[in-house]
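Model: You mentioned two targets. I'll fold them one after the other.
Researcher: Yes, keep them separate.
Model: Target one:
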Amino acid sequence: MGDNERLAREILEKVCETDEIFEDYEMDLVDEGFIDSFALLSVILEIEKRTGLKLQPTDIKKEDISSINSLIKFLENNR
């Protein structure tokens, strides 16, 4: 498991408060009700805290965290 995958898993497990999300890395976490607008802000704060990146709410969209794979890709492109 790479660093971005580990980080994505840790952040999403904390924000979603479940490990059910790991059953399918392509599961749409928004459609399944695991992520809402408040969770999006929590993800941004966790990314900033763990990586030192400074993000604005407009820097990350729901599509960027709609699945574990999409957050991994976002982290790969922005770290």
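Model: Target two:
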Amino acid sequence: MRIELATPADAAAVAGVGAAAAGKLTEDYGYGHWSSEASERSVLRDLKTSTVLVARDRGRIIATLTLQGKKPWPIDPAY
């Protein structure tokens, strides 16, 4: 297994991993904040604004991690 930066060519596979995870979590726990699926377009946006890592096993993406450098909207910027 290798961990590396995602590229635009990985966007569809990254969205697919997210969709599979969302589907399984919804199946197991019902509808929740985890139920929304990422699109290829949203992954491409994340590639521009965040650091997206992928775990590959034999060339296939098996996991993803997105690191964002911005504060989440609920946090008071004056803090």
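Researcher: Noted. Anything on target two?
Model: The chain has two helices and three strands.
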